[in-house]
Amino acid sequence: MNNIRKFRPGEAASSKVSEERDEFERDYARLIQSPTFRRLQGKSQVFGAGSGDYYRTRLTHSLEVAQIAREVAKRLERTNPFLQKREHPGLIIDPTVVECASIAHDFGHPPFGHKGEEVLNHILLKDHGLKYEGNAQNFRILMFLEKRAGSESGLDLTAAVLLGINKYPFLLEEEGRLKGVYASEWEIIRELRREWNMPEGCSTLEAQLMDLCDDIAYSTHDIEDGIRAGKIQMNATFFEDQRLIRHLVMEILNDPNKHKFGWEQVDIEQMVRKVLTDYLEQWQQIFAECNREESRTRREMKARWVSSFASRLDILDDPERGWKKVALVRDGAEDMNLLRTMEILKKLAWVTLIKDFRVLRLQKRSEIIVERLWESFIDQDRGMWIIPPDWIDSYERRKGNWSWPRFVADYISGMTDAYAEKVYAELFASKSGSIYEMD
């Protein structure tokens, strides 16, 4: 069982294996020492990177997801008898594998968050018939773009970690598929899944756990940032605002994944109102307990919600797929009410932070930057002179399986917010920096 989980599809069989460290610990080291990991500190989470020392970036978000996921994995490993059986390589939860998957789950996000992803996908699809998607880009980075001594195939991670990152086990190029893996990396992922005998469309328990812990972080940490920024005001006027409630209901109804939450079982508007009312009442209670100290109240609210979600994660049978699922559980069954509560809190963060008109103005600026960078680089004869030489060298060595449009998308998507703005300023502003600055 260990051999199939610790197999490295990209690494030569003759490669030296460390006897001092577990294979998954080697993966952890490769991930946190990679340039892609460091660049997450300069990529937007909700607020633009550089908005302030307090607010989360993709880096701090990923670390927080990893912390939650590792703690839950340790608890499940200790308390769930099923996991002790190790019946199947995909039905195992190893805390280090889950931590690695959590650290790497946002590697593929381009600068400027979801707006950057949206713009790159639109341009690639419209002009070149290609797709861009953050989860697919994760695998492009991990299995192709990242450089490691002696390797031409990324970081050469173990099968368990690669499949632990694979939330969407599908070929992205399939008709109507919005999330998945690019064809170039899907060949290897599909072969790993075949060797593991994974049911079609099912993720490993480790991938499912990482995904739910990501949702927990979104529904708690982003709200904490929103309260700190004043975008979410902790008073009845804000929480009872009919416009806010209407927007939340619309976000729920327009979500393509709404079928997962059983919204038809409840009155959506009534539940939204109840969750908001309960949240404000809890805030007021904790505010009094914390001697009316807002910063302590924010942290305590976040901690209690993380605990309430994380403590309810467990493993259930999934008879529809003949598999197992990680879920929020109460009395031996999936707690759909708590799942819907988490979704409402996620939508609250989205509506109040992402859809704020000032944020939308910044996103429009981000859209312009990405589009102008693309226009500057997409003509190969001109673009190759204004892209860093090490990128051009890599392209020349591997252009047999690297089209120029995909190369340009790879280059832009690897930029931090600040670096994208810097290159844009060099190309289109009257003056910026010095030619002797190192890229």
TrEMBL record:
Residues 58-219 form the HD domain. The keyword Transmembrane helix does not apply. PROSITE patterns: HD (PS51831). SMART domains: HDc. Keywords: Hydrolase. The keyword Hydrolase applies. Coiled coil: none annotated. InterPro entries: dGTPase (IPR006261), dGTPase-like (IPR050135), HD/PDEase_dom (IPR003607), HD_domain (IPR006674), PHydrolase_assoc_dom (IPR026875). Pfam families: HD (PF01966), HD_assoc (PF13286). NCBIfam families: dGTP_triPase. This is DNTP triphosphohydrolase. The lineage of its organism: Bacteria, Bacillati, Bacillota, Bacilli, Bacillales. The gene is dgt.
